[in-house]
């Protein structure tokens, strides 16, 4: 049941991304393809991480998260840690390329994943985990830094090909 709810949530968020992309691009002036990739990456990440049920006991689970009790830690293994970094890398990259504001994207992504970790306390199947938030933030930041490098490279290429006045 959990997998079916997650799949339905991802599908709903992907449909919403497809609907809002064009008006968003028109309103913000963001680059079209990177904006679509940003919205699709956000839809996938949110669909995989948001809780699919709300069960009593969230304040206790939130307290456990805040104090580090009952949460997973780095002992989850390198595979778990790598996934939590790599999955968010495309979001940071596409966000940087779409908005041309990589550091704002990294900060917004980090704040979003912090909120997601808190919301996960609503679902006893999910685990609020500060280490996951850190890994998600690192992935978004790494992607944004790659996007920053791409933007700088593009900008330098345009400067080299600009006609001189002399």
Number of helices: 7
Assembly of the depicted chains: single chain
Low-confidence stretches: none
Mean pLDDT: 87
> How helical, in percent, are the residues?
over 70%
Number of domains: 1
Strands, count: 0
- The fraction of residues assigned to DSSP E strands is under 5%
The whole-angstrom Rg is 19 Å
Reading the helices and strands in chain order gives HHHHHHH
Please give the alpha-carbon distance between the first and last residues: 70 Å
User: What structural category arises from helix and sheet content?
Assistant: mainly alpha
Biggest sheet record:
none
Note the overall shape.
globular
Molecular structure report:
The protein is built from seven helices and no strands. It is mainly α and 166 residues long. It has one domain (2-160).
Write the layout of secondary structure elements.
Layout: H1 2-28, H2 32-49, H3 58-67, H4 78-86, H5 89-99, H6 102-119, H7 130-160
Helix pairs in contact: 1-2, 2-5, 4-7, 5-6, 5-7, 6-7
In short:
Helix 5 crosses helix 6 and helix 6 packs antiparallel against helix 7. It contains 7 helices and no strands.
Keyphrases for this structure?
single chain; 166 residues; mainly alpha; 7 helices; globular
């Amino acid at each position: 049941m959990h997998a079916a709810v997650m799949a339905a949530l991802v599908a709903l968020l992907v449909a919403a991304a497809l609907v809002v992309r064009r008006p968003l691009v028109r309103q913000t002036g963001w680059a079209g393809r990177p904006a679509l990739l940003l919205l699709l990456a956000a839809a996938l990440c949110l669909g995989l991480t948001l809780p699919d049920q709300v069960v009593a006991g969230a304040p206790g689970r939130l307290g456990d998260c805040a104090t580090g009790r009952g949460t997973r830690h780095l002992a989850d293994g390198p595979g778990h840690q790598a996934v939590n970094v790599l999955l968010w890398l495309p979001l940071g990259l596409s966000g940087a390329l779409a908005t041309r504001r990589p550091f704002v994207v990294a900060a917004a992504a980090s704040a979003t994943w912090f909120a997601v970790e808190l919301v996960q306390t609503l679902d006893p199947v999910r685990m609020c985990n500060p280490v996951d938030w850190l890994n998600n933030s690192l992935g978004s930041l790494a992607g944004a830094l790659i996007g920053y490098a791409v933007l700088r490279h593009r900008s330098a290429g345009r400067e080299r090909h600009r006609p001189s006045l002399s």
